[in-house]
Amino acid sequence: MSTVALNGITKRKRTWTWLYFLLPSVAIMLVFFIYPILLTVFYSFTNLALTGEAAKDLNFVGLDNYSRMFEDPTVRTSIWNTLIFLIGSAVIGQQVLGFLIALLMKSKNRWFRRIIGTIVLAGWVTPEIVCALCLYSFFADEGTLNAILTSFGFSEVTWLYTVPMITIILANIWHGTAFSMLVFQAALDDVPSEIEEAAIVDGASKWQVLTRVTIPYIKDSITTNAMLVTLQTLGVFGLIYAMTGGGPGTSTTTLPIFMYNQAFVNYQLGYGTAISLLLLFIGIILSLFYIRSMKE
């Protein structure tokens, strides 16, 4: 047998060997990721329900769930609330605050960084439901914030009813800022000090060094962190549900809250799965936007 033929057989054996090692991962992905998505897509075209006649007789209803979804004014309100929550707590809140904390810690000594880092990380490692209960106690009518205000002679404010969106935005910022801080801290540590020193020698101010040297150098880390934080915040449910339940009214009803209410409160699983696919579609669009930004 020729050497070329032997090499071809060897390459095929290596290929099959790699495929054998990949089979468990592929099987897990098919069972726990691809199959649930396909099942969700199928159920979104049905009248699947937990009670009533639809619970006994599953029927294909075509695009009825989607037409109902786009005609429902609560869906538009939920999309708007979701975007406000995303921009306020993820794109602006966690990104900016995390960057500022990392920047302030950059030139500090090791003990200062450890103490501040531990304090900020406390909010991140706290389970979401515990974080929600803590912030609920803080913003409640007889909570910590009103106790502080009344001690200085100010009147109490019903935060969870007057400005409920701001309260859940602040809660999510407190809960998730540590992740952004860690990402930016690692990115800032990788910025060569020689570049910044050269810019200072050339007469650049601290602001110019930050905006024209440091931030452009870590722009990939900024975009990656923005994508991860945005996608994580897009699916936040427990924090909002425990603090406001989506209310008062629909003022804090985001898409995950609305999806839950339709699927497990009103028992309309078919309609709920259609809303979940809308949420998935928004996540895909945002991911493509961030990926394209990283390429540019």
UniProtKB/TrEMBL annotation:
Transmembrane residue ranges: 21-45, 79-103, 115-139, 159-184, 222-243, 269-291
Pfam families in alphabetical order: BPD_transp_1 (PF00528)
Cellular component, GO annotation: plasma membrane
InterPro entries named in the record: MalF_N, MetI-like, MetI-like_sf
Positions of the ABC transmembrane type-1 domain: 80-290
Keywords: Cell membrane, Membrane, Sugar transport, Transmembrane, Transmembrane helix, Transport
Location within or outside the cell: Cell membrane
Annotated GO biological process: transmembrane transport
Protein name: Multiple sugar transport system permease protein
Organism annotation: Paenibacillus catalpae
